[in-house]
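INFO  loader      accepted 1 record
INFO  loader      residues=113
INFO  predictor   begin
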Amino acid sequence: QVQLVESGGGLVQAGGSLRLSCAASGTGFSINLMGWFRQAPGKQRELVATFTSGGGTYYTNSVKGRFTISRDNAKNTVYLQMNTLKPEDTAVYYCNQIGRNWWGRGTQVTVSS
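INFO  predictor   done
INFO  writer      dumping tokens
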């Protein structure tokens, strides 16, 4: 069983920054394949950023150049540094691996204009 605990969300003004953290525990996950997803009100959950099986990273177009995914393998923790935040980034952010159903509670990010 895998447990994912997201933290670091909050209320920030447009143009501000936040750093999200995701602590993973249990068995069966790979910190090297973790990613960040988000779900805005009334919208489907979408992939924001992830580490790829080829050792690289993927970012959805809307966050390229603003968000950075990183990890600390020793701590089984994944981070999402979010800069130049926009109101459209408002959502609940979750970490997970693509194709897995290990959803945690997420962390709310609200960007005011």
